[in-house]
Amino acid sequence: MAELFQFELVSPERQLLSEQVAEVVVPGAEGEFGVLKDHSLFMSSIAPGILKVRNDGDSWTEYFVRGGFADVSGGRLTVLAEQAVPVAEISREQLDLAIKNAEEDAADAKDDMTRQKADRTLRRLKDVAEALKQV
Amino acid sequence: MPSLKDLRNRIASVKATQKITKAMQMVAAAKLRRAQEAAEAARPYAERMGAVLANLAEAFEGRDDAPKLMSGTGSDQVHLLVVATAERGLCGGFNTNIAKLAREKARSLIAAGKTVKIICVGKKGFDALKRELGQHVIKTIDLRSVKNVGFVNADEIGKEVLSMFADGEFDVCTLFYSTFRSVIAQEPTAKQLIPASFETDETEDRSGAQPVYEYEPDEAEILEDLLPRNISVQIFRALLENAASEQGARMSAMDNATRNAGDMIDKLTINYNRRRQAQITTELIEIISGAEAL
User: Fold this and answer.
1) Interface list for B 158-217 with A (CB within 8 A)
2) I need a surface site. Which of A63, A107, B59, B192 has the fewest CB within 10 A?
3) Which of B245, B290, B259 is nearest to B124 (CA)?
4) A12–B45 C-beta distance less than 8 A
5) One-character DSSP codes across B99-124
6) The model's pTM
7) According to the model, what pLDDT value does residue B207 have?
8) What is the ipTM of this complex?
9) Could you please report the per-residue DSSP string of B11-47?
10) Which residue of A has its CA nearest to B56?
């Protein structure tokens, strides 16, 4: 039996999840990372993508998250996301809207830095859309 | 001297008013519960955000390369006041109190020779401010069509403020709203958004060795990402507090109104009965004295 730790997923509007879990995979800004019990103190901003949660057992629950950050401290993981939706509930329109926004961002970016950032966001969103289509 | 008929009409009209205020009170009570739930649901996010930012900000204290949103532009010449009020009246002193606080602040700033710009969120705030400070209002944001305030609405206002800051249109930004204490107590509050101020938790023991955090990407980048987001979160929180306060204020105002109407009906009814009695007595005396004269 895997050791459990406290995990919280919070969006500005409500707390989506607060429970004991075995493992969480977070789409960090510089790559995905997994969190198990007794992870060292860590903070990362998150990129739009799929956040996976494993309760005790082998089944994963997936959430689509966008914008925000993850914080590991005091033996718990907190993910603050601007938007967090269970994958089962996400609608094509919402995702399309996010992609359209990202495209616009990339188009009006003033300097290279912001353009790169917007491009990266756009790519991630397209990946997610791709992944969802297969489901 | 009002006639009996006038009194009767008056009683009927007060009764109708009482029915309306009673209904408004019930509606406000129902909406209050929902608004309160929303405000409570949003609390964990804002709190965590504040804690994390305070942590990060400490690392940057006194450093030259701290982001502008935190350290300020180095001047305090131009002030932006964001005044968040309700879209509807009939809620006691709710709108007036927020407007009053904002007006006092604006007055003292103008007296000190600063430039003041105002953004009104909600129509009532603009109505209250336009007479004295109308020429300072640069924008009004209308949320009347929005039924339940969502993060999107707050984010829009936040982006607006940020783009103005990026263009150097102001140095200091203060947000005015009403904190929800209880149904009968709402407290008008001014909160400085830019440069960001953090309440650090004094109860926490900071004497021990600070644990080493690992950041990805580095601290500066995270902070730069978080500060703008924090503005939207603060505004969102203010809007939710406002929504709850508004319903609370309306509920107690309507409760008072209902009670006052009740008192008035009682008084008018006593008056009416007395007058009716007097009229009957007069009529009787007339008949009797007429009969006696025969």
Assistant:
1) 211-217
2) A107
3) B245
4) yes
5) HHHHHHHHHHHHHTT-EEEEEEESHH
6) 0.82
7) 43
8) 0.70
9) HHHHHHHHHHHHHHHHHHHHHHHHHHHHHHHHHHHHH
10) A43
